[in-house]
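Supplementary Methods, section 5.1.

A reviewer requested that the exact input to the structure prediction be made available. We therefore reproduce it here, unchanged from the version used in the analyses.
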Amino acid sequence: PDGTFRNAINAISGVLAQFAGVPLAFAYIAALGLNGMVTVFLKNTWGINIYSGGTWLYEMPGLILPYMAFQIPLMVIVFLPALEALRPQWAEANATLGGTRFTYWTRVGLPVLVPSLIGSLLLLFASAFSAYATAAALISQGSQIVPLQIRAALSSETVLGHENLAGALALGMILTMVVVMSLYSLADRRSTKWRR
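The structure derived from this sequence is encoded token-by-token as follows.
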């Protein structure tokens, strides 16, 4: 049963991690938009107006829920192998030597998991930093994130001649991604020795 549950979690996480971009934005608009199913249900049933403070779904705070919808499953996919690398023999050895759960986690578990955790967080940052389609579909006005600023600089009908700004922003993104992926490679190399 344990292996079946793990396989089911991997399968569900794999599907949800790929459910991003415009389809994800449409799902959130259909559910939580101004006339979305959940919004109308809450308003008609309990009198709760989730937009009493403004239309947050179409602004920067509205990106948090959709981004979490594909980032959390991605974290499960990336971090689960690290949890599987914790061998039961290590817990048995710790108990045999008189260690407690606290000593197991502070001296064995966490030191083994920290490189994988750091690598997973760096990978999630890279994924969120470069995500474009979900934000482009949800946020129609303004350019709060770098990929949308690049789009605005390249395709603005009112402000012309910002192609160099788009190039500079793209170069900044590339350099940021090189640093993040280099750090991820170091963390992954460190955690790989525990997965063998």
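The mean pLDDT is 87. These observations are discussed further in the main text.
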